[in-house]
Design a protein that fits this description.
Blueprint (H helix, E strand, L loop, with lengths): L1 H10 L4 H10 L2 H19 L2 E4 L1 E6 L25 H13 L4 E6 L7 H14 L4 E5 L5 H10 L3 E3 L7 H7 L6 H14 L2 E8 L6 H14 L3 E6 L16 H14 L9 H6 L3 H7 L4 E2 L6 H4 L15 H14 L3 E3 L6 H4 L7
Parallel strand pairs: 1-8, 1-9, 2-3, 3-4, 4-5, 5-6, 6-7
The protein binds 5'-deoxyadenosine and FE2/S2 (inorganic) cluster.
5'-deoxyadenosine binds next to loops.
Length: 354
């Protein structure tokens, strides 16, 4: 196992069967070693600095019905909300004062937010905060829409691929959603020039180790600027309510492998990881993650953006999360930085592969 880990460190790759072996058979002791080497790799590139992204969850309306997600259209128990333009600007203002230089506008696939409306919002934020990065995370749209939003001033786009196995994709989503379109969207985003993020859930229903190996292969080939992964966590009002949560341990294995296969990738220690275990985000950083994404949404709506049960940070103000995260990072020897935190390849101007 040690030789495999060392080969991964040296070559930034393993064969599919070696990856499978590593994921399925790593001992606790070797996992400590893997996490340590992944952390060392992150430190070599980004130092002991953790980037923050202020997450604004601006709508929980969604036209889709992903079987795992608490804000799926068919969930009658979800209390729906939309933030007005003014509320979104207010979140940015608060975030800016707290030192955030990246705003992530995330929402369900909500047709209320037309291209015109979203472009207006993006332009306003762009003009007000020229020194900030604007990230969108609003699902599948057509090329024209992605282009207009990019021209309006958005720089980055997060669209998790969810699984790189087409058959598994269809087990997680209803028939009207297509794996091919998901991948096409990711290709389009990258082509337009967005710093693009993909990602998947660890331990989602019907996921096999082969699926995970395909995820790792997909990421290696796609060369995203960012990769978001977290454990699958069940939500009581979804068809998958009786499935077990994904494991923190497996998430830590995958975070480290992703860091070592894609050394300069931006890798968040996600809210789902912090929900699954109280020190999950700290453990994520110690496994090679280098980003945290505190919530900037108004406290009044936070509980409603419920993708899974028991989500953390739903009662805290933005300022509280900011302090909490600073302390958590300090406790493990890291510090939060307030720069935009671009992918290193973009900073160098070498953006051919991101
Ligand atoms: N558990 C964990 N992550 C989830 N997501 C959606 N539902 C869940 C869940 N039940 C993730 C998906 C989505 C991202 C915004 O949140 O991967 O892309
Ligand atoms: Fe929100 Fe700790 S990060 S309370």
């Amino acid at each position: 196992m040690r030789e495999l880990i060392e080969k991964l460190v040296k070559t930034s790759d393993l064969t599919d069967s070696e990856l499978k072996l590593l994921i399925d058979n790593i001992s606790d002791e070797d996992l400590d070693y893997l996490n340590k080497l992944a952390r060392k790799k992150a430190n070599e590139i980004y130092g002991k600095q953790i980037f923050v992204r202020g997450l604004i969850e601006f709508t929980n309306y969604c036209k889709n019905n992903c079987y795992y997600c608490g804000i799926r259209a068919a969930n009658k128990n979800a209390e729906r909300y939309r933030l007005s333009k003014e509320q979104i600007y207010e979140c940015c203002e608060q975030g800016y004062k707290l030192g955030f230089r990246t705003f992530v506008l995330q929402g369900g696939e909500d047709v209320f937010y037309s291209d015109d409306l979203l472009c207006e919002i993006v332009k306003t934020i762009r003009e007000k905060y020229p020194d900030c990065a604007i990230t969108l995370s609003i699902g599948e749209r057509d090329e024209e829409s992605y282009k207009r939003l990019f021209e309006a001033g958005a720089n980055r786009y997060l669209l998790r691929h969810e699984t790189a196995d087409k058959h598994h994709y269809q087990k997680l989503h209803p028939e009207n959603m297509s794996f091919d379109n998901r991948i096409k969207c990711l290709e389009t985003l990258k082509k337009i020039g967005y710093q693009t993020g993909c990602g998947f859930m660890v331990g989602s229903p019907y996921q096999t180790t082969d699926c995970l190996v395909k995820d790792l292969r997909f990421i290696k080939n796609f060369q995203p600027a960012m990769v978001g992964i977290g454990p699958y966590l069940s939500h009581k009002d979804t068809p998958f309510c009786d499935f077990e949560n994904g494991s923190v341990r497996k998430t830590l294995i995958l975070l480290s492998i992703i860091r070592l296969m894609n050394p300069s990738v931006l890798l968040p220690a996600t809210t789902a990881l912090g929900t699954a275990k109280s020190d999950g985000r700290e453990k994520g950083i110690l496994a090679g993650a280098n980003v945290v994404m505190p919530n900037l949404s108004p406290v009044s709506v936070r509980k409603k953006y419920s993708l899974y049960d028991n989500k953390i940070c739903t009662g805290e103000e933005s300022a509280q999360c900011r302090v909490c995260l600073s302390n958590r990072m300090k406790s493990i020897g890291y510090e939060i930085v307030t720069s935009r935190g671009d992918n290193i390849n973009f900073i160098k101007g070498d953006n051919k592969n991101v």
